Amino acid sequence: MSRPVRVRFAPSPTGALHIGGVRTALYNYLFARQNGGQMLLRIEDTDSNRFVPGAEEYIIESLQWLGIKIDEGISVGGENGPYRQSERREIYKKYVRQLLLDGKAYIAFDTPQELEAKRAEVANFQYDASTRMQMRNSLVIPEAEVRQRIADGEQYVVRFKVEPNEDIHLHDLIRGEVVINSSILDDKVLYKSADELPTYHLANIVDDYLMKISHVIRGEEWLPSAPLHVLLYRAFGWEDVMPQFAHLPLLLKPDGNGKLSKRDGDRLGFPVFPLEWHDPKTGTISSGYRESGYFPEAVINFLALLGWHAEGDKELYTMDELINAFSLQRVSKAGAKFDFEKGKWFNHQYLIQKNNDELAQLFMPILKEHGIEAPHDKVARIVGLVKERVNFVKELWYETCFFFEAPTEYDEKSLKKRWKEDSPKHINELLNVLEGVDDFSAENLDKVVMAWIAEKEYGVGVVMNAFRICLVGAARGPHIWAITDEIGKEETLARMRTALKKLS
Ligand code: GLU
After folding, report:
1. What is the 226 CA–ligand 1 centroid distance (Å)?
2. CB neighbours of 134 closer than 8 A, spacing ≥ 6?
């Protein structure tokens, strides 16, 4: 049965959105757009213990920054709301009652202490068909007593009654056929009277059903829950509208085995969050891609290729190109190593694609922070000279500072290697030569200076390296005549005089 494509991103607001979650959102978005479908945003906040203030706003801002647009749900509204699960209590209660009436679920009074004691007593204890009749629940306790206990205010949970020894088949769009025997599942808690809220499983299924979700695209960590979800669909009689599942591969550590964690980012120096995150509980600040200077297009491109690639070796994709090229069939089953150096490479690619005017615009505020006000044209020209050398706009300062201000100190290493015994003499003579030159254009200077070096039989490298140290303060920077061209005759001579004074 083909249905309109409707996918959802359903994060729990338990902290900053992890970069893996961003990829999940992106794949959902690409799939929805490609199929002319819709992308929903639902907040799964039924676990009040793990709720973190600010997390929902953070999720919305992250998606906005990245250009992942939501068609329905949190932040946009729609006809299937509310889209925050904590506001849907009454809806879930109705479905919990239905399962109880149909004998597909039961009420259990076992306290946490009793369950703990049972676990201590029985190795690998699991609340299931083999043990449920030894527990304190409505399958064992007479109905009148169950009613009385509830009327007396005793807390309870509702458990799903999983029938044992049945193969549950699941067709995953990425993993193919998955078969799981129901005997390994436990009787999952679906509802807790204590907070009058359902657990993730019940709320997730009911909402996917009511919100007419056609495809569930989510992280691999949810694959173990999928068989239970299939059983829930069946218990409700919703098999024919059960969404198709696609479980995405994990993002792995850059340098080893296992799942990428925040600690890997701290250890190796890269963000694992889209935006900077201020943890309201601990007060710690974690870096974000945005604040680290990444372009959102680069982050999107980078993430899209972590776990998916098209045929061929094309690597640079705009969002529209991704929407065209993406397919779940080409998402890999194996985990994707998080190669953050590649992330920088993507940023570099997007940076050099920008024209000099755009880059100047982005760079001017940074110049200003360094106390420099320069005309846009000049900044654009200078940025054009060095953009190939940087991955981030902020790195432009290091590459261009000497265009805007004279060096105040000289790099030790460069001096050791490039400032020779004869250098003061060379620079002194070159100063005399340049004082007499009126046409300070690159072509003319090159002609004049090369002729002088040849006449004196000096080494070109020796002289030019020392000259560079005078202008830049180190043995780096773009072509020397590009520098003199930009700073002009007076400044060039002044820097040479200063260097002679300081370095002789
Ligand atoms: N609330 C779950 C999460 O935080 C959603 C899992 C799902 O997409 O079904 O990832």
Report:
1. 11
2. none
Q: Is the pTM of this model over 0.70?
A: yes
Domain topology for 355-405: Helicase, Ruva Protein; domain 3 (1.10.8)
Q: In this structure, which residue's CA is closest to atom 5 in ligand 1?
A: 10
Identify the active-site residue in 93, 212, 262, 420. Answer: 262
The bridge status of strand 189-192 relative to strand 197-198 is: antiparallel
* pLDDT above 70 coverage of the chain, percent: 100
Q: Which residues line ligand 1 (CB under 6 A)?
A: 10-12, 44, 204, 216, 218, 222
Helix (H, G, I), strand (E, B) or coil at 190: strand
Q: What is the pLDDT of residues 388-408, one digit of tens each?
A: 999 999 999 999 999 999 999
Q: What angle do CA 496, 500, 504 make, to 5 degrees?
A: 160
Which amino acid is residue 215, in one-letter code?
H
The closest residue, in CA terms, to atom 2 on ligand 1 is 11
End-to-end, the C-alpha distance of the chain in Å comes to 85
Q: Where are the domains of the chain?
A: 88-248, 355-405, 412-503
Instruction: Tell how far the Cα of 247 is from the centroid of ligand 1, in angstroms.
Output: 11
What's the rounded mean pLDDT across residues 276-293? 96
Nearest ligand 1 atom to the CA of 24 is: 8
DSSP 122-148: STT---STTTGGGSSBTTTS-HHHHHH
Predicted pLDDT at 257: 85
Q: Which atom of ligand 1 is nearest to the CA of 217?
A: 8
User: Distance from the CA of 11 to the center of ligand 1, in angstroms?
Assistant: 5
**CATH classification number, 88-248, choose in 1.25.40.340, 3.90.800.10, 2.40.30.20, 3.40.50.300:** 3.90.800.10
Q: Which fold would CATH assign to domain 412-503?
A: Arc Repressor Mutant, subunit A (1.10.10)
Whether 502 sits among the annotated catalytic residues: the reply is: no
Q: What is the DSSP string of 199-257?
A: -HHHHHHHHHHHTT--EEEEEGGGGGGHHHHHHHHHHHT-GGGPPEEEEEPPEE-TTSS
Q: How far, in Å, CA of 262 to CA of 18, rounded?
A: 8
Beta strands at 6-9 and 38-41: parallel, antiparallel or unpaired: parallel
Ligand 1 atom with minimal separation from the 10 CA: 5
Average of per-residue pLDDT across 334-344: 96
Nearest to 225 by CA among 425, 44, 62: 44
Which residues contact residue 115 at a Cβ distance below 8 angstroms, ignoring those fewer than 6 apart? 127
